[in-house]
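Collaborator request, handled under Task 6.
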Amino acid sequence: MTIYQNLIGGEWVGANATKNINPSDTNEVVGLYADGSAEDTRNAIAAAKAAFPAWSRSGIWERHVILKKAGDEIMARKDELGALLAREEGKTLPEAIGETIRASQIFEFFAGEALRLAGETIPSVRPNIGVEITRDPLGVIGIITPWNFPIAIPAWKIAPALCYGNTIVFKPAELVPACSWAIVDILNRAGLPKGVLNLVMGKGSVVGQAMLDSPDVAGITFTGSTGTGKRVAAASIEHNRKFQLEMGGKNPMVVLDDADLNVAVEAAANSGFFSTGQRCTASSRLIVTEGIHDKFVAALTAKLETLVVDNALKSGTHIGPVVDERQLKTDTDYIEIGKKEGAKLAFGGELITRDTPGFYLQPTLFTEATNQMRISREEIFGPVVSVIRVKDYEEALATANDTPFGLSSGIATTSLKHATHFKRNAEAGMVMVNLPTAGVDFHVPFGGRKGSSYGPREQGKYAAEFYTTVKTSYTLA
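Structure tokens returned to the collaborator:
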């Protein structure tokens, strides 16, 4: 079987390899992917540093052409890459193809942004002096991505980093190297100069740590767990480097008495259970007012009974497997915690078997939960959702905001008054009205508050805030 190697300084470099296993069929090895070392990482950083002076001064048309070419190839191969994503992560094939299309759109967007780089020319308060305000690329960017969106999240970090003239050392999650390797291969063939984009697959404790230890990494953009994010922050402060963190969520969806029941159920089911609940924007807390509570729970339970859990590649599958055995254990441990805390297991919670061996778990719904329970406070990152009963809108809003996280927040209501008030007062970076809390556009800012995020927003034109540094120049006329 072919070993997919790391890309360092424009060369594919050999290394020890690890197996990439299909969570829908654990008998299948998706591929063998390099397991990089600290030395590999240091070599990649050195290559990125050497390539930075030329790439940071490259023409905007060159960047545009490369990013456009990459976006076009991803779109042309959407079915193939979507199937690869489904095989290595367990996302259903329609979801995986949709994520691949989004990655293509991200590259298309930043190909356009490369042609829209701009600054300001303004007069000084002093006579005969001109002022220019421009944005310079930051330098070597360390990119660390998670396993739950193995093509979209790398795309929304790599594309702006290249657009604004930075060089990259990229470490994808160990569980999902295949999609990352494919993106890097596409960009490499699209014409990137040697050393501009470097891929080092491997363990976070080895590759990630070597990135954190290096004084030559000017910025690190990280998406992953809160605990690891704190370590990225501490190490970055020591080196006075810029850092951007996207971490956990315990996102609420409020359902008011006046909600359209069908809209509320569809939004809640999508938010909480699709992508196997493995989204930082998933709604794992459903905060429901008394008047609609029983009808909503009954309708949502009926909806869950129709959802098919099966192999991610099989037609008709709504929910694929959990990503691996460790995450499956986390999910089942939290189910037991919920029972012990006194929540009522209203649906699911059982391991299930299918034609192929995999990490299959029924979607799980708890009712009679409180906002103080661990299942309502801690991110589970699986298809496990709690319903919290509240008296009215005011209690619903207070409960929604009572969390250490603040990524996404949603409300189901037909009241313009409540929708408007919620948008203004929800303590989250993104607010959804009558929509799932998961699912965002590629051209607008993404990010949260409190324990969910730190640093400038990702995506859209706001990405420039992280990937560039502002320069002010004065000239005597």
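The cover message to the collaborator said: "The chain has a mean pLDDT of 97. The CA atoms of residues 146 and 173 lie 5 Å apart. Please let us know whether this matches your experimental observations."
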